[in-house]
Amino acid sequence: MSQLSIAILGLNRVGASIGLALRRYMQDGGKHKFVIIGYDPVTDNEKHALKAGAIDRTERSPEAAVRDCDLVVMNVAYDAVRDMYKDIVRDLRDGVVILDASPVKRPSLQWANDLLGAEKHLVGMTPIVNPRYLMDTNRNTESATADYFDNSAIVLTPAPSCVKEAVDLAFNFCSLLGSKPRFLDPLEHDMLLAQTEGVANVLGVLLFHQLMQQPSWRDMQWFTNASFGTLTRPLFDIHPDALRDEWLANRDVLSRTLDSMQAALQEFRALLAEPDKAALEAVLSRAAEEYETWVNHRHHDDWDNTTKPPKLEANNTMLGTLLGGKLANRLTGKKDD
Fold it and tell me: Would you tell me the crossing angle of helices 240-249 and 199-212 to the nearest 10 degrees?
């Protein structure tokens, strides 16, 4: 059995679930043992993660957490990512692989290129959660589960210059979490995620902003249920600075998507104003049918996926040179010299 050390920076539901999935892997007899170090600026998140068994210990600073680690999961608020890289770079060992869970990948890859140097390797990582939790919007640490990534994918977005060995490690690590890793170009990733998550967050914030300015808002506030809470939840889960930076970093894609949505809203408004019952019914029926198809695909995980998992090349001499011989031995199941 080999041992790997991993630092998880950010212990919300995603970060803590990574720890729990690794714990499950070890309990099920996995050939690697992980020592999991956690860090979160919110002390309660650290306490919950420790109590749940998602991490072995915490450190008081991200610098201390990443020191001598083989892998680092960067799972912090988007507005803090660049500064976090600047803070930890001196404590990262040569050969470390960083999995960056930022919602926008191109800036992170550029920051890594500018700040980390050639001996630290970054691969973008975006978890697509288990369909069991598709309608569950909780992000808190207490909601973490070992099966959070099962029956779904983790999207990997390596930079074109990223060494193959780092990509192999990222792929194999994400497989241990229960996912089926898939690869996307960073630009394609940012375009797709902006449309499925970014715009949804924009609409929720704009709805709340528009309603809070209405004279009737004082009376309207109590007249709110789960639909309103779910749509506007980004204001609870994500710091305004993080939303600001994420939107600005992906502003071109968001702007184009909002332009398209504005045209669709005008068409939909016309259907209501006329009113055109038949056309409105046709829109709703088509959307409901396609929605059912999407949900079924999501729950059965039966996408047309022809991607084959790349194999880790145990005899590749670059593995020892670029990632460190000790880590290479651990990854290939050999004992350290």
Answer: 130
Do both 262 and 291 map to the same domain? yes
Owning domain of residue 175: 2-181+309-331
* pLDDT tens per residue across span 244-259: 999 999 999 999 999 9
* DSSP label of 125: E
In this structure, the answer to whether residues 65 and 136 fall within a common structural domain is yes
Dihedral of alpha carbons 254, 256, 257, 260, sign: positive
pTM for the whole thing? 0.86
* Domain containing residue 33: CATH number: 3.40.50.720
* Alpha-helical segments (H) within the chain: 13-27, 43-52, 62-66, 81-88, 105-115, 164-176, 186-193, 199-212, 217-220, 226-232, 234-237, 240-249, 251-273, 277-300, 317-323, 325-331
The CATH number given to whatever domain includes residue 257 is 1.10.3660.10
Identity of the amino acid at 106: R
> What spatial distance separates the first Cα and last Cα of the chain, rounded to whole Å?
14
96 plus 43 within the same structural domain: yes
How far is Cα 53 from Cα 69, in angstroms, rounded to an integer? 19
pLDDT digits (tens, 9 = 90+) for 20-58: 999 999 999 998 999 999 999 999 999 999 999 999 999
Query: Are 276 and 317 in the same domain?
Result: no
